[in-house]
Amino acid sequence: MNSVRHLSPSDPDYPSALLALPSPPTSVSVAGSLGAGRVVAIVGTRSPIPPAAAFARGLAAEIARRGGVVVSGGAVGIDAAAHEGALSAGGRTWVVAGTGHGVLYPKQHAGLFDRIVEGGGAMLWPFPPGTAGHPSRFLQRNGVLVALAEALVIVQARIPSGALSAASWARRLGRPRWVVCPPPWGTEDHGFEGCLVERRLGARALTSVEYFVEALGLPGGAGRSAPPKPRNPAETRVLAALAADPRHVDEVVVRCGLPYPEVMTALLTLVLEDVLVEGPEGCFRCQSPP
Length: 290
Hints:
It is elongated and about 70 Å long. The longest helix has 16 residues, at about 50-65. Helix 1 packs parallel to helix 2 and helix 8 (about 235-240) crosses helix 9 (about 250-255). Strands 1-2-6-5-4-3-7-8-9 form a 9-stranded mixed β-sheet, sandwiched between helices. Strands 10-12-11 form a 3-stranded antiparallel β-sheet. It has 2 domains: about 5-215, Rossmann fold (3-Layer(aba) Sandwich); about 235-285, Winged helix-like DNA-binding domain superfamily/Winged helix DNA-binding domain (Arc Repressor Mutant, subunit A). The protein has helices spanning about 50-65, 80-90, 110-120, 135-150, 160-175, 195-200, 210-215, 235-240, 250-255, 260-270; strands at about 5, 30, 40-45, 70, 90-95, 120-125, 150-155, 175-180, 205, 245-250, 275-280, 285. Helix content is about 35%, strand content about 15%. By secondary structure, the chain is α/β, with parallel strands linked by helices. It is built from 10 helices and 12 strands.
């Protein structure tokens, strides 16, 4: 691995994004390059279902193809899939370790970490050299990981999980949160409980890689939202029954004059497309005037 630089906040090469943290790391060791680029954090469970891991790889590859940088924690599971996806596209990826330099974790990723640095990416250790891993440090690491990024994507998260810790940091630092929920693969909710919680807390649903890179304005995309999807009659009537203030589903049913199941299907479809916002419980409102 390339030579390692040990940086303090007073060093001109210290990552300035980390100064947004309430307590920036007093020591950051860096191997490789932290060159400029649009940075997206991808995190998730250590034991994903195969389609979730494949989605993470594909998303990371597309971000890398468009010149973006993928940052994750180097763990097994979704983290590793994201790093591998970026490498497969010939792009850059960063690992934020939960230890200090000189402590390798997980040990089976030594080769992956070498390939990341050799491929133009970077390894970051946000603790003093020799610091061992500890659950509290991995939670701190998540803050560093999120601070470096301009958006956070959660791909399959349970409760509790480190990914939800990253989501908490994203809320605190004002970073946009995106979650991948079960519907893309038609699975049961098991294993995605954390994603569903974050969705209810305001995270956006990531249902399409192309939509995500377009919405983020990554180079190579149009830098705009996907064109509006044509509405079916039920969705049109539901939208007409809503406003900027929350309305309960029962009121929407009365206003629409449609069966309850048809109204709920339209409401949930519009929520997934970020046209509507759900909450408080049983209520919905428009993102913007319909």
